Amino acid sequence: PLDKPVAAANVGYIDGQFVLNPTNEQMEDSSLNLTVAGTKDAVLMIEGAADFLPEDIMIDAVTFGHVAIKTICEAMEEFGKLVGKTKNYSTLLQPVEGLQEEVNEALGQKVEELWDHEGKKSELSSNMSKLSKQAWAMFEEKYPNDRNQVMKCYKTLLSKKMYQKAKETGIRCDGRKLDEVRTIDIETTLLPKVHGSALFTRGETQAIATATLGDSGMKQKIDKLDGTQQKRFYLQYTFPPSCVGETGRVGMPGRREVGHGNLAERALSTILPSEKDFPYTIRVESLITESNGSSSMASVCGGCLALMDAGVPVKSPVAGIAMGMLLDDTHSVSDDDAVIVSDILGTEDGLGTMDFKVAGDRTGITTFQLDIKCEGLTIETMSRALQQAKVGRMHILDKMDEVLAGPREELPPTIPRISAFQIPADSIGKVIGPGGKQIRAVIEDFELINMDVQEDGRIQVSSLNTEKLKKAEEFVKELIKSAGGGGRGGDRGGRGGGRGPKPAYVGPPAEEGMVYKGKITGIHQFGVFVEILPGPEDGSSPGLEGLCHVSELHVERVRNCEGFMNSMGVEEIDVKYIGKNAKGQLQLSRKAVLEDKRSGNKPKKVEPKEEMSQDEVDVIAQAIEGIQNL
User: Fold this and answer.
1) How far apart are the first and last CA of the chain?
2) Of the candidates 58, 18, 62, which has an alpha carbon nearest to the alpha carbon of residue 37?
3) How many whole angstroms separate alpha carbon 83 and alpha carbon 153?
4) Cβ neighbours, 10 Å, residue 437
5) Nearest 10 degrees: CA dihedral of 12, 18, 22, 26?
6) C-alpha to C-alpha distance for 55 and 300, rounded to whole angstroms
7) How far apart are CA 43 and CA 67, in angstroms?
8) CA distance 262 to 264
9) How many other β-carbons are positioned within 10 Å of the β-carbon of residue 329?
10) Phi/psi at 385 (nearest 5 deg)?
């Protein structure tokens, strides 16, 4: 029995024009990704990210999306009339007649005294808990089976009295003015051994943010339906029970933590330099140590400060603020009497009707999220909230500038330096070596932190010693030129000698669907190179080599390819040839072999056969010729 239909729309902004429900291809060129949901009368929810768009464009975008929502809702209303189904109200719990008035009369004065006290969170929570128990004790005898109804009326009274105080006096339950931001305290380089760190405190909400820089091998890997995605920047938000004075289980992040982390991540991702200009993988962690409202926006502020403390050349500092709204009637659409409050408390979030998070720099917005608990938010009220949020955001940015106005000019000495270069893709196996021996030797001998080899031949090496970094790059380049390859790095160097282009495989082709026992020729993060058919003994041509991608190594997900292969401790593995990719490279699968074994299928297995030398072939040919002459 819905009161009215609800619809949603997606809005993009391309070349100064709004686009309704843009395609994935269009979104690549869009500076706005806005999702709007609502009824034909008002907006219920918005969420998305923008590329420093000003408030007036954001309002126009919401208005543009809401026009489409009206059209959809009106169509659904017509559809409902055509269907002609009668709404079923029989299962709805009806309010007890006269109960709200009784609660108002019995507890109205006590609630007013509660809001007039203007204490801290711990004191306010304690007083609210005591009053809640008194409320039930007063009505338990008369309404023994209606506890939920009594407490709902009590909560309605709390909301109404909170609104009345703010509307009549301009003062909130903690003594602040409507647009006043809580006291802000900031400290950077809190943890000297960490690449970048910041302690951001706003009132009774506090976050410790750290920034860690690494090479391309440290990107976050996410398995998706269309393959594996690698994220260069990711933010992890942690909200332990202790930050709200509780104890509880600490384990995997819940939906709330993931959502808050994604919101803060979107706010910061827009200000980061490109990977070409700054070839680091960037990880920010925000640990909430105390919370009384808007910890996700504290994570934005703390995360930005930690990035600048680490020397990341951000485009501009960003800050976030959470806005709230108080209404006289929480079951109505917002109107001109709605009270907009800045930097909301947890209490105002729980008893208010809006939680509107906005983050951005001095020129525009980078991310936003709105959810409400009333019938809807008008465009006019949203415009008021955005303008008030801008004032608050400027105030927070001023406080951040007082401590750290921009990125540090030099990277801290604890951050590894990175060098990137390109080698031919067909030389990857030589750099990796059998079982990864060569790459481990280079890392060890040149005292590298890591060496990441991409499938297209891009190599990124990282080290705290810039001289060792240069020598490692020179050695690798010399290694792929050497005739014999091998050898270890450092002062021992590699074997010299040059050679021409790599010869092609000239043996019999592999049969698709066949299983081969192949020799491991290289291991790195995206998979394992396996030689399934050997070349001639004289080395005149190479063996037939293919790639077993990390997703094809096992029936279960392999998170660390090198660690997985090292744990197996083998030099040969059984793989199935499953065809060639778009580049003509052989694709192999160990997972297919394991799945065949599980299902009881026994595919034909092809053991590699040794090729005869040319001398052996000549001897046999002479023997055959001699027999034919008999």
Assistant:
1) 101
2) 62
3) 36
4) 14
5) -80
6) 19
7) 11
8) 6
9) 15
10) -65, -40
- What is the spatial distance between Cα 256 and Cα 259, in angstroms, rounded to a whole number? 5
Q: Residue 84 corresponds to which amino acid? A: G
Q: Token digits for 315?
A: 């485009």
The answer to whether 46 and 22 are in contact (CB under 8 A) is no
Return d(Cα 155, Cα 104) in angstroms, integer.
10
Instruction: State the angle between helix axes of 121-139 and 147-169 in degrees (0 to 180), rounded to the nearest 10.
Output: 130
CA dist 326 → 163, 170, 342 (Å): 5, 12, 11
d(CA 395, CA 519): 63
Name the residue among 40, 34, 32, 42 with its Cα closest to residue 325. Answer: 42
- Nearest of 516, 493, 508, 509 to residue 577 by alpha carbon: 516
Backbone angles phi, psi at 164, to 5 degrees: -60, -40
> What's the rounded Cα separation, in Å, for the pair 454 and 457?
5
CA pair distance 361, 308, nearest whole angstrom: 14
d(CA 533, CA 519): 9
Task: Give pLDDT tens digits for 390-427.
Answer: 999 999 999 999 999 999 999 999 999 998 899 988 88
HSE of 116 in the Cβ direction (CA atoms, 13 Å)? 7
Cα distance between residue 475 and residue 481, in whole Å: 10
Q: CA-to-CA distance for 448 and 41, rounded, in angstroms?
A: 61
Residue for token digits 């001639």? 536
pTM: predicted TM-score of the whole model, two decimal places: 0.75
In the chain, the largest separation of any two C-alpha atoms, in whole Å, equals 125
Q: Exposure of 511 by Cβ count < 10 A (0-12 exposed, 13-18 middle, 19+ buried)?
A: exposed
| Whether the Cβ atoms of residue 296 and residue 320 lie closer than 8 Å to each other | yes
Of the CA atoms within 13 Å of residue 374, those in its CB half-sphere come to 28
Question: 492-501 long-range contacts, Cβ below 8 Å, gap at least 24?
Answer: 492/445
Determine which helix (DSSP H) or strand (DSSP E) holds 296, and give its type and residue range: helix 295-309
**pLDDT tens per residue, range 236-291:** 999 999 998 899 888 888 999 999 999 999 999 999 999 989 999 999 999 999 99
Distance of alpha carbon 69 from alpha carbon 75, whole angstroms:
10
